[in-house]
Design goal:
By secondary structure, this protein is an alpha+beta fold. It contains 6 helices and 11 strands. Strands 2, 3, 4, 5 and 6 form a 5-stranded antiparallel beta sheet that branches. The protein has a 4-stranded antiparallel beta sheet with strand order 1-9-8-7. Strands 10-11 form a two-stranded antiparallel sheet.
């Protein structure tokens, strides 16, 4: 599989990276480990196992991976001495006990219809975090109607006032397989034979196509600021490894091959897990 020099020039000019070569055909799992190690290093050791097992196969011809890292200190940090445990109320009516950061200062806020907004700027005041707090019982409806344009418009509604802020510390992780999501959004031809990636190899023959798109995010928020790390990866393939997934009712038979005797035959309509491994 050859790659056009123009494609390599695009990578170098716009992304500041060069291509590397790996033995996908002979050692796909080792290649996966090498790429995952690169992602791990580039995200300050936050994102592990970026590409899941078996996402690279002997049919893989190219992997495109990128990372995004964000670290910023609050413009007005919270004093850790005023962090206390408290109840966080869940949508199902339960509660969990978590550390809450507390602080008082002049902040930009907005009291909307059915929700409140808080702006927490980072040092330099070029980037900020918006906290949108729907009224109790209004979370699902608010989330369902949330759009990017509405989010940005909230900045024009903010007003500065002396405010007490109580905010939990948190860590959040996201691990997505974007293949089906992108397919459903209309990017279908890229995921099947007939895709046109001739801008990479110069040949419009319907191969390769995308077999996997993954995305992972790790984020933490504490008294001093925020760290967020993300990676997105795409695998181009020339073929598909056959799968046999017994995830529905099936029939089984145990056969003595020299005589053709069927010693046992049956069906599994509902898997029950069976006993733990038995050593014979």
């Amino acid at each position: 599989y050859t790659v056009l020099q123009s494609f390599q020039d695009t990578l170098a000019y716009y992304y500041g990276v060069d291509m590397d070569t790996l033995d996908f055909a002979g050692a796909p799992e080792n290649s996966r480990s090498i790429i995952n190690d690169w992602v791990y290093e580039e995200t300050d050791h936050w994102i592990e196992d970026a590409f899941p097992p078996s996402s690279l196969t002997p049919f893989t011809v190219m992997v495109l991976a990128n990372t995004f890292c964000f670290q910023a200190k609050w413009l007005k940090c919270f004093d850790p001495d005023y962090t206390y445990d408290g109840h966080f109320y869940l949508l199902n009516g339960g509660t969990v006990t978590v550390p809450f950061m507390n602080g008082e200062d002049y902040f930009e806020t907005f009291d909307g219809e059915g929700f409140d907004v808080l702006k927490l700027p980072y040092e330099g005041e070029l980037v900020s975090m918006l906290i949108l707090l729907p009224d109790e019982g209004n979370f699902e409806a608010f989330e369902a109607g949330l759009e990017g344009s509405f989010l940005i418009s909230l900045y024009d509604s903010l007003e500065t006032g002396f405010t007490h802020v109580k905010l939990p510390r948190w860590t959040i992780s996201t691990d997505l397989n974007l293949s089906q999501i992108l397919f459903d959004m209309g990017m279908s031809t890229a995921f099947q034979l007939g895709a046109d990636f001739s801008g990479i190899d110069g040949v419009d023959d319907g191969i390769p196509w995308i077999s996997t798109v993954v995305h992972k995010t790790e984020m933490w928020v504490n008294e001093h600021g925020t760290g967020a790390y993300a990676m997105t990866g795409m695998v181009l393939t020339l073929g598909v490894v056959p799968h046999f997934d017994a995830i529905r009712p099936f029939i089984f038979a145990i056969v003595d091959e020299p005589t053709g005797t069927i010693m046992f035959i049956g069906r599994v309509l509902e898997a029950n897990g069976g006993p733990p491994p038995i050593i014979f």
